[in-house]
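Chapter review: from sequence to fold.
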Amino acid sequence: MAKLIATLNVVAWAGFWAFGYLALTADPGAPGHMITAVVLAALGAALGFWAYMWLVRHSESTGYAKPPNRAAQGPDEGMAG
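The token string follows.
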């Protein structure tokens, strides 16, 4: 499953960059092409971000990457206000 998500991550970011470039270089006289490219670029960015975060969580949970340093909070420690 992780390899599938990793492949999805690469394809999604490639789509983001490709359609983002098309959106930036689109003819202003054809707003339909520009809007379509922007929507596809946004979908690629959202899917790429989701896949990246899934991979980070998966690698931390399997022990491939060590989890980030976080201070442990006791039951009486919380946000001081």
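Two observations follow directly from the output. The two ends are 44 Å apart (CA to CA). Residues 1-62 form one domain.
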